[in-house]
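re: ur question from yesterday

yeah so i grabbed the chain u mentioned. its 403 aa long if i counted rite. heres the sequnce exactly as i have it in my notes:
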Amino acid sequence: MKKTSHLRPWAVWSTAALTALTLTLSPMGTSAVQAATVEVNGTTSTVQSSPATPARDTTIPAVSESSKQSLLPNVLVIGTGGTIAGQSEDATSFQNYKAGTLLIADMVKDLPDKQKIADVNTLQFGNSGSGSYTMADLYDLSQTVDKALAQYDSVVVTTGTDTMEEIAYFLDMTVQSDKPVVITGSMRPWTVIGSDAQANLYNAIKLAGSGRTQSFGTVLMLNDTIQLARGVTKSNDYRTDTFETPMLGAVGYIDEENIRIYRAPARATKPEGTAKPAFDLSKINKADLAKVEIVISYQEAGGGAIEGFVKNGVKGIVTSGTGAGGISRAMGQARTKAIEEGVIFVTTTRTGSGSVYGGGNGIIAGDNLSPQQARILLMLGLSFSDDFEKIKTWFETYGTPEV
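ran it thru and got these structure tokens back, copy pasting raw so excuse formatting
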């Protein structure tokens, strides 16, 4: 039977809590270097003992013939590691675990009742903490998502939560397909009691397969809450409700079979295929990605950070300023000199919410983008153009998506 639609009611997930995994799995075997284990703030994680870049798997698995004929949506889950793929020290170790240990194929296999909501396939892109990925890795990840969407109805990407907001916004600004892209993770490892990992992955697959976020760009789904990539931020280092969107709030929620969407981004209101982001990575090489850094202002902040970044060859700098974007006198003087050398600046606030307006010679207002997401947009802008006015226009459109 030919698949006609993937918009259909969803089954209620009434299965009891999952049994903790008993298999001991080693990290992905594609790493080009040996890994060392360190403990920071009680959380065990993996770091690379060599600067060599671990290998990434970008080979898209084919959609099976049976899945093509099924009425269910075809969803590809791309695993990149993080806490969601974490192996805890024991069943009650909430903070002591090894992130990026379990394989996404085994995690998906462990989910109950998934056959009621989607035909699911998996790809192990990598198995690291989110902060271990380079911008070149994100370039490959975005290209992989786009290639996958040429075959699949939607894609779920699992990542660590530490830099999830940056990974999500990078995908949001670069993936060209209008099909749903959902990013998820967890605050507790897969193998601990009361983990949010299984529910988050299940609901992410459900949301992706539902088609409800078609043309939304990339969205986050954690803690039964749906957030747009733009504006979302991690607000707490341990709580499961950590992700919030200051000022604007969530776009929807999942309550068993009910998926509720209460607002949509501007791009979703435009005809299909007309709201693609300007940053088509197929038009540049990963080596073309511009170097952009962030500096924060504080009482009597010096200008040395800006001066050092300029000497290091940056093309752009985001300032995380006090109040409505203010920076110290020393930083202001260093910024003026940097602008004379061709460096472009974006002004944001360190307060956590609020809009920054204005701008000027060599300076662009970041509106209510966080410093870390403004860096992503400035990096992409500088990777595609050296023209200040063009980059400013991208911030006034993509960076400020008013309806």
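noticed a couple things. Residues 72 and 118 are 5 Å apart (CA to CA). also Residues 1-51 have pLDDT under 50 and may be disordered.
anyway ttyl
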